[in-house]
Design goal:
Layout lengths: L8 H4 L11 H13 L6 E3 L9 E6 L2 E22 L6 E15 L5 E7 H14 L5
Antiparallel strand pairs: 1-2, 2-3, 3-4, 4-5
């Protein structure tokens, strides 16, 4: 189901709780909402639809992907950029990293690890910031 985008800063600044198998429907809604907004959005975190769980969805090199409980293990190649967000109006400066190594769980809650680079790495960092309650 396509959900309304949350713009409530109290919700967006709340640190998300770990996701469990009971949150699979939230992930499905998050992915459907992301696809609905594909013309202006490449990634979303669950708190952007009002649910403070550690779930992100994004469009990367390999298509759409959902991550449960993502954590950045390693980062390198810092750079400064600007980002916008569906939940918060405007564009803001932010520090990102060109290469990140991420640990997450898939939809079967099996642990995965992968190194991401470029724009995909930037998207993931933005969405993990949402999970941490960080407003850019």
């Amino acid at each position: 189901m396509v959900r309304e985008i949350c713009r409530d800063e109290a919700v967006l600044s709340t640190k998300s709780q770990p996701a469990t198998a009971a949150d699979l429907a939230v992930a499905a809604d998050l992915l459907e909402t992301l696809r609905y907004h594909k013309d202006g959005c490449v990634g979303m975190a669950a708190n952007m639809i009002g649910i403070c769980k550690r779930i992100i969805a994004f469009e990367g090199e390999d298509g759409y992907q959902v991550m449960f409980n993502p954590v950045i293990l390693k980062k390198s190649e810092p750079y400064e950029t600007q980002e916008g967000c569906l939940s918060i109006s405007g564009v803001r400066p932010v520090k990102r990293f060109g290469t990140i190594k991420v640990c997450w769980q898939n939809e079967r809650f099996q642990e995965r690890r992968k190194t991401f680079t470029g724009f995909t790495a930037q998207i993931i960092q933005h969405e993990i910031d949402h999970c941490e309650g960080i407003l850019i």
